[in-house]
């Protein structure tokens, strides 16, 4: 059977005239007039003009700040709302010309005319300012022109372009939340005015303006001059509203006519007009938009060339806008012609002896593999296997085959089994751990894996948020591949010679071909980023170790866990009851609004940080409040939250216990940009350990039947040891080589006392600062952490650096080097690229600097632990031991020890972990043993 897969662009066709289109945010354009409808004219160009600051502000206040931020702490609510609005309007209005105008500053010719202009506006929230430059980055990726003009406002730019375009026969749309733009409305100029955040726009046509205000759009500035504009701090005539103003305009023609006839207007309104006439004239001078600015671009220069796909990926990755990116790809066409290309292959459904013949003929070169089936939590089942080889020569379709593993015949099964187990046959998979689990549970062992395209892409760009195959094929091959998990932005059609349409096997062959093509494209990137060795020597071997760990899981004492569930449920109820007694009523303790009323209105406590929905009631804020007030309600509320969180952890574990009485987590290698492993479903790296109640949960993780005990091994102060190695600071090196308590040793140097005289408070301060420095801790941050004045924290840091100058020099140098090269590097050469180090956005630049400080240290620690896991696994197998690794929790390993093997395993683990890296200070490993995870702690 011949299969040709043709990839079509994911762009949706422009909507038909008058057809409503609803988005994820419920964006809607309300037609308040029937004279203009969406859909560009077939003969005249359509220009969309956007007031950047106006729409960004509306987006900022429409979406809660606390709900939109990146993993690095960058707030993105305004960027998200603005970008969502932009995508919707581009889709619904289908303009072919676009521009966005921004204000430069508040100082314009209007403030020179009237100093109080906009004087009532408070300073922009600190979370808003940095987002404007991020919006401009989005616009640059979408290739949307941005215009600014010192001394003028964005509206003046819009007015100039609208006038020029209207005169040239364009249809013009102005998207702005400033009513002054209503004066620009004409038969071919429409204002899209936000009426609810940025998700609903009203279409202000001449008829709509007249219906709302009772006058023609060109007379709107006269009405606004009379009634004033509160948002611009332009006072109107007392006692004169829009109806009266519109009546006067109708009677006297315009503001000049009203002024000339001011003595004829009777009553209090007339007298009020005469009394305030100077202000009215100032208002009219200020609210008139400038229509003849000298701009670098005219309407003809604003044609959209189509957005830059790779730049969109980079910008949206940094902002963590995966959903918006999918909407963008699904609704707007791109200029990249390569998206029309597809995967050519000659596919065959094989059975019997044909399987072996095909494998022998086509698999001497690396091939791509896709497995059909299911896998989760260390178990699975494979139902089908697709294999695709590269093109034998340019332009010639590559061969592909599919084998049904459920209905497989003996000859085919024998061929597949032997081929999969043959290490000399090079194989590449995508996100291989799950598929390998499924094959293993069907009894099929796999050797000869030379690549995993998900891991390869992760090593090249570790800050991406998505490594799914469909996304990577678009990014690296310029081809859109249908993926069942992301149907919103891909479309795949198959022309079949023998069937009416594609089935799972056909699609699997196309995905297998995409894997091998993608592998070829990633080779140069891996080499350029010095990542080939990491993939081959660390990540790929570790994939197999993690798969086995997931399969084993860890035993749980379900009775003890059930008792804990009851205990924490009672603790939640008791804490809630006492909290209610403290305030004399019952409220929803999980409701921020109800808590705000109690804390700040009824109890009159000090205000916390202001948010869109009031004052924050997050855990950190409440802990600070309790430290200040010691109010019993807060004590019970905090206990209620802690108990609730612990109960949720217990409930999650109870649900995760498998039929074998064990919990099987899933480890992820491509989540943390620093190289750290992540655990999910359930997250066993997040089991509480710092509180006694949290440690009770660890008591329920126990040794399984037929094993003797659990063994835990972890590194002591590994990040500080790496700091000593990287900085080559003589003082830190001496501390570790002396065997003295690190923080006591450092404290004695900083405070100029004998080690024995270092108090617990001194040691605590040194410990907080030592670890904080590796994370870019500032004097302000240290002062908050230690609850000391900023000046004291600054002095402490200066004294520290005076004694440990190597640390100071290293911290300065690592950021400078990363700014020069664009990346940081771990001891094993793992790179993290940080383009924001040269960003004009101060907040993003400072965040990147903190990452540059942390990434080499935390990343090196992650690399060392991974090497240690590989070495422990190798030694266990070489020595033929039954003991096995179960968990990895950052710098700790948990093993299940078989009877009679404890001493051997202790020695083996200590040597493997201690020798995982050659540092200029020793790697110290602590080992503990017990029947439970908690008992084995040390």
Automatic annotation (TrEMBL):
**Entry EC no(s):** 2.7.7.7
Report which reactions are catalysed by this protein.
Answer: DNA(n) + a 2'-deoxyribonucleoside 5'-triphosphate = DNA(n+1) + diphosphate
Query: Residue ranges of the 5'-3' exonuclease domain?
Result: 43-305
Q: Which SMART domains match?
A: 53EXOc (SM00475), HhH2 (SM00279), POLAc (SM00482)
Give the residue ranges for region: Disordered. 1-41
Among InterPro entries, the record links this protein to: 5-3_exonucl_a-hlix_arch_N, 5-3_exonuclease, 5-3_exonuclease_C_sf, DNA-dir_DNA_pol_A_palm_dom, DNA/RNA_pol_sf, DNA_polI_exonuclease, DNA_polI_H3TH, DNA_polymerase_1
What is the main EC category here? transferase
Instruction: Recite the UniProt keywords alphabetically.
Output: DNA damage, DNA repair, DNA replication, DNA-binding, DNA-directed DNA polymerase, Exonuclease, Hydrolase, Nuclease, Nucleotidyltransferase, Transferase
DNA-binding: is it a keyword of this entry? yes
| Transmembrane parts of this sequence | none
Question: Which stretches make up the DNA-directed DNA polymerase family A palm domain?
Answer: 694-901
The Swiss-Prot or TrEMBL record describes its family as follows: Belongs to the DNA polymerase type-A family.
Summarizing the function annotation, the protein's role is: In addition to polymerase activity, this DNA polymerase exhibits 5'-3' exonuclease activity.
Check the record and name the PANTHER family matching this protein.
DNA POLYMERASE I (PTHR10133), DNA POLYMERASE NU (PTHR10133:SF27)
What name does this protein carry? DNA polymerase I
Q: Which organism is it from?
A: Kineosporia mesophila
């Amino acid at each position: 059977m011949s299969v040709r897969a043709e990839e079509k662009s994911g762009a949706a066709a422009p909507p038909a005239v008058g057809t409503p289109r609803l988005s994820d945010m419920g964006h809607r354009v309300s037609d308040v007039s029937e004279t203009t409808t969406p859909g560009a004219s077939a003969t005249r160009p359509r220009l969309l003009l956007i007031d950047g600051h106006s729409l960004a502000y509306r987006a900022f206040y429409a979406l809660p700040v606390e709900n939109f931020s990146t993993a690095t702490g960058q707030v993105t609510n305004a960027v998200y709302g603005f970008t969502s609005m932009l995508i919707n309007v581009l889709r619904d209005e289908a303009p072919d010309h676009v521009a966005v105008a921004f204000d430069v500053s508040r100082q314009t010719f209007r403030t020179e005319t009237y100093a109080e202009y906009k004087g009532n506006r408070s300073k922009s929230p600190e979370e808003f300012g940095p987002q404007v430059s991020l919006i401009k980055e989005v616009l640059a990726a979408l290739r949307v022109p941005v215009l600014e003009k010192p001394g003028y406002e964005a509206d003046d730019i819009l007015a100039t372009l609208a006038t020029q375009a209207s005169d040239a026969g364009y249809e013009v749309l102005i998207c702005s939340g400033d009513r002054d733009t209503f004066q620009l409305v004409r038969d071919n100029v429409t204002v899209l005015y936000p009426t609810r955040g940025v998700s609903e726009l009203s279409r202000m046509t001449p008829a709509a303006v007249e219906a709302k205000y009772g006058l023609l759009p060109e007379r709107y500035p006269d009405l606004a001059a009379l009634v004033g504009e509160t948002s611009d701090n332009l006072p109107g005539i007392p006692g004169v509203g829009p109806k009266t103003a519109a009546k006067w305009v109708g009677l006297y023609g315009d503001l000049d006519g009203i002024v000339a006839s001011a003595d004829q207007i009777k009553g209090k309104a007339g007298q009020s007009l005469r009394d305030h006439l100077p202000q009215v004239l100032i208002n009219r001078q200020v609210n008139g938009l400038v229509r003849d600015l000298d701009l670098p671009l005219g309407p003809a220069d604003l044609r959209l060339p189509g957005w830059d796909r790779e730049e969109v990926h980079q910008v949206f990755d940094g902002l963590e806008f995966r959903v918006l990116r999918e909407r963008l790809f699904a609704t707007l066409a791109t200029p990249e012609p390569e998206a029309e290309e597809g995967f050519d292959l000659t596919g065959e459904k094989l059975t019997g002896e044909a399987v072996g013949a095909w494998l022998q003929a086509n698999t001497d070169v690396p091939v791509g593999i896709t497995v059909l089936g299911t896998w989760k939590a260390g178990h699975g089942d494979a139902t089908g296997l697709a294999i695709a080889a590269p093109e034998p020569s340019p332009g010639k379709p590559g061969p592909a085959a599919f084998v049904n593993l459920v209905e497989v015949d003996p000859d085919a099964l024998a061929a597949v089994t032997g081929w999969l187990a043959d290490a000399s046959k090079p194989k590449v998979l995508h996100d291989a751990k799950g598929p390998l689990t499924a094959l293993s549970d069907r009894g099929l062992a796999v050797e000869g894996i030379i690549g995993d395209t998900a891991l390869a892409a992760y090593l090249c760009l570790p800050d991406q948020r998505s490594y799914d195959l469909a996304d990577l094929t678009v990014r690296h091959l310029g081809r859109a591949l249908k993926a069942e998990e992301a149907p919103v932005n891909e479309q795949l059609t198959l022309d079949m010679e023998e069937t009416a349409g594609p089935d799972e096997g056909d699609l699997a062959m196309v995905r297998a071909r995409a894997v091998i093509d993608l592998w070829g494209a990633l080779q140069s990137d891996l080499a350029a980023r010095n990542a080939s060795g990491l993939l081959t020597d660390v990540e790929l071997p570790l994939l197999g170790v993690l798969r086995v760990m997931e399969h084993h899981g860890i035993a749980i004492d379900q009775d003890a866990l059930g008792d804990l569930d009851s205990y924490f449920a009672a603790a939640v109820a008791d804490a809630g009851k006492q909290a209610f007694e403290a305030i004399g009523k019952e409220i929803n303790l999980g409701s921020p609004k109800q808590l705000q009323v109690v804390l700040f209105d009824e109890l009159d406590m000090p205000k916390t940080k202001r948010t869109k929905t009031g004052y924050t009631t997050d855990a950190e804020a409440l802990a600070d409040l309790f430290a200040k007030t010691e109010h019993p309600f807060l004590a019970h509320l905090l206990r209620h939250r802690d108990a609730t969180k612990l109960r949720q952890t217990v409930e999650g574990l109870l649900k995760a216990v498998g039929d074998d009485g064990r919990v099987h987590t899933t480890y992820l290698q491509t989540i943390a940009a620093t190289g750290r492993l992540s655990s999910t479903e359930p997250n066993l790296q997040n089991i509480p350990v710092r509180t006694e109640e949290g440690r009770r949960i660890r008591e329920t993780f126990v040794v399984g039947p037929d094993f003797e005990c659990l063994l835990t091994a972890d590194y002591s102060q590994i990040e500080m040891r790496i700091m000593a190695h990287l900085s080559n600071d003589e003082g830190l090196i001496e501390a570790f080589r002396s065997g003295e308590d690190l923080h006591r040793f450092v404290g004695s140097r900083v405070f100029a006392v004998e080690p024995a005289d270092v108090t617990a408070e001194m040691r605590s301060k040194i410990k907080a600062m030592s670890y904080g420095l590796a994370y870019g801790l500032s004097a302000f941050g240290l002062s908050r952490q230690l609850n000391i004045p900023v000046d004291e924290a600054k002095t402490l840091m200066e004294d520290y650096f005076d004694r440990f100058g190597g640390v100071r020099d290293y911290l300065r140098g690592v950021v400078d080097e990363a700014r020069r090269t664009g990346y940081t590097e771990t001891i094993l050469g793992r790179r993290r690229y940080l383009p924001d180090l040269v960003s004009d956005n101060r907040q993003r630049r400072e965040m990147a600097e903190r990452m540059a400080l942390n990434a080499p240290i935390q990343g090196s620690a992650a690399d060392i632990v991974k090497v240690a896991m590989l070495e422990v696994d190798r030694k266990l197998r070489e020595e033929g031991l039954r003991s096995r690794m179960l968990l990895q929790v950052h710098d700790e390993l948990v093993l299940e020890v078989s009877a009679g093997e404890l001493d051997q395993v202790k020695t083996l683990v200590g040597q493997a972990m201690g020798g995982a890296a050659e540092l200029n200070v020793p790697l110290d490993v602590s080992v503990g043993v017990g029947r439970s995870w908690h008992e084995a702690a040390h």
